[in-house]
Here is the input.
Amino acid sequence: MTRLDEAGWLYPCFCSRAEITRDAKGAQDPDGGPLYPGTCRHLSEDERQARIGKGDRHVMRLKSEALKEIIPNDLSFDEYHEGEVPTRILASLDPWGDAVIARKDVKTSYHLSVVMDDARQGVTDVIRGADLFASTSIHRVLQMLLDLPTPRYRHHHLIMDDEGEKLAKSRGSRALRDLRDEGVTAEEIKKLLGFA
Here is the structure.
């Protein structure tokens, strides 16, 4: 994160979730959360430093508007489906606005963590759920800014419960082991994920 901050690509945001929800006026990001309206983007450097000096809690956000000047229009990643011919996907921060890169409670967001972890471990192929497809644009921008390699991507279908919600530990959904115990075969699970 230090490298991004020193390059001038980040700024602190002091807004609460309630303030963001109010000011977003219904605009949403690809995850369905309120789209950050850029409230703190316009604070002066003196005001930012004064608030940080007072200990005001904040996150660090990407300056998406400023980054448009340096992100190539053709910045992309390869999305693989069945077979070896990928689809080229253009990366854009527009749907996300000024994405969070570091949080109040942890030093990095999911986005920065996975990009750094993938690069450090030499990951060449990433397979994630379809719910993370849109965030790959943020990851591709971070890879460009930090001079990191870009893996090949594949986003699989999600297994849904009887109510049409994705299976998630946080909701107490059935685990893969539960499905197997119920007699669901490995081939059936592959089909559910779009791999067959």
Observations:
- The mean pLDDT is 90.
- The chain has two domains: 2-156, 158-196.
